[in-house]
Amino acid sequence: MAGVYAGFVSSPIGKKLATQLGLPRPVRLRRYAADAPLVDGPVLVAGLGSAPIAARVRDLLKAQDVDVVGEVAQGTKLGAVVVDLTEAATPADLEVLRSTVAPTLRSLRPSARVVVVGRDPRDADGFAQSAVRRSLEGITRSIGKELRAGATANLVLVRDGADGGVDSTVRFLLSGRSAYVDGQVIRVGEGTPAEPADWAEPLAGKVAVVTGAARGIGASIAEVLARDGATVVCVDVPSAGEALARTANKVGGTALQLDVTAADAGRRILEHAQSRHGGLDIVVHNAGITRDKLLANMDDSRWASVLSVNLESILRMNETLLGDNGIRDGGHVVLVSSIAGIAGNRGQTNYAASKAGVIGLVDAMSTDERLRKRGITVNAVAPGFIETEMTAKVPFATREVGRLLNSLSQGGLPIDVAETIAYFGQDASAAVNGNVVRVCGQSLLGA
Amino acid sequence: MATRSTPRSTQQSSSAPRRAAVIGGNRIPFARANSTYSHASNQDMLTATLDGLVARFGLAGEQVGEVVAGAVLKHSRDFNLTRESVLGSSLAPTTPAYDVQQACGTGLEAAILVANKIALGQIDSGIAGGTDTASDAPIALNEGLRQTLLAANRAKTPVQRAKALTGLRPNQLVPSIPQNVEPRTGLSMGEHMAQTAKQWGVSREAQDEIAAASHQHLAAAYDRGFFDDLLTPFKGLTRDQNLRPDSSVEKLAKLNPVFGKGPDATMTAGNSTPLTDGAAAVLLGSDEWAAERGLPVLAHVVDAQTAAVDYVTGHEGLLMAPAYALPKLLERQGMKLQDFDLVEIHEAFASTVLCTLAAWESEEFCRDRLGLDAPIGELDRSKLNVNGSSLAAGHPFAATGGRIVASLAKALHEKGSGARGLISVCAAGGQGVMAILEAA
Ligand SMILES: NC(=O)c1ccc[n+]([C@@H]2O[C@H](COP(=O)([O-])OP(=O)(O)OC[C@H]3O[C@@H](n4cnc5c(N)ncnc54)[C@H](O)[C@@H]3O)[C@@H](O)[C@H]2O)c1
């Protein structure tokens, strides 16, 4: 996380200069800790009309002994603001949002959360309702850019009749798990969420497979899934076996050395998960490579290898992993896209092709009848600039820019991506399907 | 699967001890001495090997019944090598361990020891292994210097100590480096082997054929992913460093002999194993222990036998002991050599393999030396060392047994239930260790 710039602006001289010049000053983000409360400070919960989600959130927070308030008292600093606009019908209704959130913005603690809740524009009745529902996205994204000191703003769109599925998302967004998720829209729809016996171990008893688990984001995913209670099958190429063994032993899982592009990769993963651990509940397709070149200079092998590892292998493995004897009903598939797949990136036509393809895959799979019937969710994360060995290869200047071009003025950590994936992997998130959540600190790229 | 002369029941009678299961194995790629692993100690390599095994079978934090391993070239500080490696690994620190040493037979002997304790019900699971480094070899003090220093240490007064130290001589500063030499004959293992090879009239070409096949088989096994679940890379090495996939009889024919004398010397660096660093381990357990954990059972350990020969008087060749162990095994199991589906003969030298096979084919040897009515007979070469052996992989002495047990168990498993395999490992001091595995 400590880029050269971040180091400079936290030095005494740098701090002074940065303040004088109005440069962004990255703060240390609030991240998950087992002993930390869900939110750091009192939470203001408000809404328009009957505000059904606000009522749910109040109950949820009270059960966690979180202090819930209706307005900002003089001198208190809030940990979060949750505002329920599900009943917004006309642009005039947005005034409630302004009058509720505006007074809180100067009273937020570092790494505070603003969570706006609305209904999906796709379910809108009439032009005005559709418009105003979409307005929420513009407001939330703008708040995200206005916030300082590690605070984030995200929007939750709840489909009609899906209010019961919102808890895991609200918890995720309020908690330190969503540290680097900013300016995002998460849709909650149909599905039957199952509340975990213990929210500290939401994946207890589950078996997960993570590809590309030897290092970087994959290693972190394995750690977070294991921390949350899952047994993790760690997969990586045989040549990465030494690091893979380290990950597997650290998380108390098993190491499976295989190349995801192998024809029988899906079968071997499934066999391993079923024979060793009795089944498969969560699949995280994380393995990925870059082979950057301007398209003008791109050769066929760079082109093919990136598509093969990042996209084709997933299609092939899924035939087995999602087959009738594959992942259990109610299971979760998480794909790893990239902001390059959304925004495109110079020198990354091959990579962007694969990562945009991943999003297309989420769209199709999440609406697939057969998978819907089996209650299997399919979502993706799209990481922005994450500090790993992959990004350490990026040239210095590009890297510093990548770190800074976002609302949190810093690169994310592998654990930030992992936390989002673990949230998708919960049975409590059964109603979270078909989302592509960027873990990018609200990067300006592709925004 | 091949048909056998005498049908054997694969069932165990109720009074017989249970058979230990070979669940799987792990090794690090073997490196040529004084190369990639120069700065890795035996403990480093054994620990890494254990960790790879633990990761493969999900044993982090678990206690297994016993870990048994050893090293042939061992520092005196490594008196508790295996236990120290366990403590440095991800296994539970409550896992007991002990060291064994039987020269090149160490790894296989360790597996037999673990298997026997499992068979007797004394433990339910265990890890057997071995490690050796020719790069980080122990260098002992010159014997004269050692005696002088011990005398000084025994001295009771400063004067006595000073007197003892006057025994120091400059030539005592030359350290004593361990040598691959038989203490009782002063001959190196290669020189011994050269004598036996000459006796049996083993040709240069036949030896080079064995060597080329070893490289080609090992390379093919890597290419088909055979080692993907038998090996964990170490220090950036992902394949055995000694492996030359393009090895051929023609290329090997160009090398000059290094052992034996005169124009009919046949043993070269190509058909003798190079000095190597590495480690290997095998996970064994009862069938129940494996089933409880959803672990595979590749094979069972059926039987084992050691033998030793009198090589000091020259009565028998140094590395010929396995030839003597086999008939005992065959008799006990009611088997013929030809009944085995796969045979692993450790390639100390290509000529070791050839002399052993020749001895079994020889009516005279089998009658006079083994006391058999008929020769043991010919081995179908297509069953021999099918995934390569020590000439290609290298031979870090104590690691070889673990390498063979795990690879053979997997290869037998691929052949199908009931397939039987024989392992033969010769060892310094005129010894030999053999074992039989049967696919589960
Ligand atoms: N680091 C970032 O900023 C960033 C941004 C966006 C997306 N991503 C994506 O996140 C994922 C992880 O990236 P990372 O930064 O941790 O990269 P990384 O290179 O550190 O790790 C990727 C892992 O995948 C493994 N892998 C590669 N090809 C494989 C194959 N054929 N079979 C099995 N394993 C294979 C590698 O051995 C490696 O351990 C990738 O899909 C990447 O595209 C990363």
Automatic annotation (TrEMBL), chain A:
Signal peptide: none annotated. It holds the Pfam family adh_short. GO terms for molecular function: oxidoreductase activity, acting on the CH-OH group of donors, NAD or NADP as acceptor. PROSITE patterns: ADH_SHORT. InterPro entries: KR_dom (IPR057326), NAD(P)-bd_dom_sf (IPR036291), Sc_DH/Rdtase_CS (IPR020904), SDR_fam (IPR002347). Residues 206-384 form the Ketoreductase domain. It comes from the Bacteria. Belongs to the short-chain dehydrogenases/reductases (SDR) family. This is 3-oxoacyl-ACP reductase.
Automatic annotation (TrEMBL), chain B:
The active site is at C104, H395, C426. InterPro entries: 3-ketoacyl-CoA_Thiolase, Thiolase, Thiolase-like, Thiolase_C, Thiolase_N. Its EC number is 2.3.1.9. Keywords: Acyltransferase, Transferase. One of its GO terms (cellular component) is cytosol. It comes from Knoellia koreensis. Residues 21-286 form the Thiolase N-terminal domain. It holds the Pfam family Thiolase_C. Belongs to the thiolase-like superfamily. Thiolase family. The keyword Oxidoreductase does not apply. GO terms for molecular function: acetyl-CoA C-acetyltransferase activity. Residues 296-438 form the Thiolase C-terminal domain. This is Acetyl-CoA C-acetyltransferase. It comes from the Bacteria. The keyword Acyltransferase applies. It is an enzyme of class 2 (transferase).
